[in-house]
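Consortium newsletter contribution from the modelling node. Members have asked for a concrete example of what our holo predictions look like. Here is one, prepared for the flavin-adenine dinucleotide complex that several groups have been discussing at recent meetings.
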Amino acid sequence: GAVDLEYDLVVLGAGPGGYSAAFRAADLGLRTAIVERYATLGGVCLNVGCIPSKALLHVAAVIEEAEHVDKAGIVFAKPSVDVDALRKHKDGVIGKLTGGLAGMAKARKVDVLHGYGSFLDPYHLEIEETSGNRQDKSGAKQVVKFKQCIIAAGSAAVHLPFLPRDPRIVDSTGALELRQVPGKMLVIGGGIIGLEMATVYSALGARIDVVEMLDRLMQGPDADAVKVWEKQNAQRFDKIMLKTRTVAVEAREDGLYVSFEGENAPPGPVRYDMILQSAGRSPNGGKIGAEKAGVIIGERGFIPVDAQMRTNVAHIFAIGDVVGQPMLAHKAVHEGHVAAEVAAGEAQGKAELARSAFDATVIPGVAYTHPEVAWVGYTEAQAKAEGKKVETAKFPWAASGRAIANGAEYGFTKLVFDAETHRVIGGTLVGPSAGDMIGEVCLAIEMGADAVDIGKTIHPHPTLGETVGMAAELAHGSCTDLP
Ligand code: FAD
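And here is the predicted structure:
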């Protein structure tokens, strides 16, 4: 058919990977378009992921802080929750950010083509119009020609096949819609997304059970940190059922009756008002007609790429959730920048730019729960499993003045060092603002810093952040006397 539009670069998907890639490419001089099926830019992260969840977690933290200052002699009345107003607040946060992105696209002259994109061949995408966020295809189609393309199609929540279709059974997107605060809620999957949503709903008043197939909650961080987390969250949950699976759900008018199997399974069906399924996400690689472009889709829908984010088809790149774990926004953004730089470098014959590559040593992970857990690089257990000789230094926050002042003396900061070079190769923090502090450990690892470098860096006192310096000082055998 006829070509309606033509670009140097077309980016398929406007999540953090896609918009970062498109903006970088436009800044570098490529005529760029983004194809997005939803009405707003920002993808999962801004619309139904990172940002709305953090808006709600902030509110949850305020509620819980207020409850805890009774120890300091301050007693607030029980909060009354206006769910409609809270939903509006959350949507307002999203709107500010997605609106900002639209403005940035316009300023850079990046065209946003709304519709569902799929490949016709290695140089053309067909875009079928969609309306709103419902993904209803209205039929109107246009064909876009590109010299280079970046696939940034992201991922979607896995839906367990045995769950009935019922408005009381939601995935993270449904949970973030905040339609109701249930009396009793089951969270299927004890990963970060499930535990973040459990934190929100419990702060709003729901009673919560968590069921997890594996033998622990949160697979990423150091097991010590998870232990601290579990202790701090003991009151939040009625039951945490590890090594247990849901096997059947019966939807009745008076509730959802769930049957379990496994080590901690209750004997009979249990009644819930709402179920959140957060049992993982799967990449959207299989849904974009990639085969017509000759792009190989690998195991479980992930698209294999090289360090320059190229697929097997040299002028087609892929980035973000669609290329593999960890499925995190900051990974997608960095990959997006690499793909855009390589694409621009090739198009303009700029060899140095074209050599850009994704070479991060580490990618941090954070659970924005209460308390937060943040980790990066090696845990002690991973290092041991690989036969790596390491030293660890753990600074308990019970020895931090600021942590005590803030009521966070349960937290800790732990660093993992290579036993021979004394370079830091990993770190874990558990406690409030852990996610804000892990960046220092990331920088230390990327810069090849050792224990002395970190320990001799003057951190402001009294801060939670200085526990990173204090842990490093423990490792190199001296410690300041500051509490
Ligand atoms: P996505 O954000 O998934 O964007 C892909 C975009 O492509 C979507 O907008 C989609 O509509 C569009 N698209 C796909 N196929 C087509 C097509 N054929 N045609 C047109 N458009 C298409 N990560 C963090 O780092 N920190 C967090 O705190 C965090 N919290 C999260 C909380 C939740 C509840 C969830 C679900 C995820 C969270 N994540 C978080 C993960 C993060 O959202 C993803 O890693 C990130 O959004 C991936 O970015 P991406 O650009 O690869 O894809």
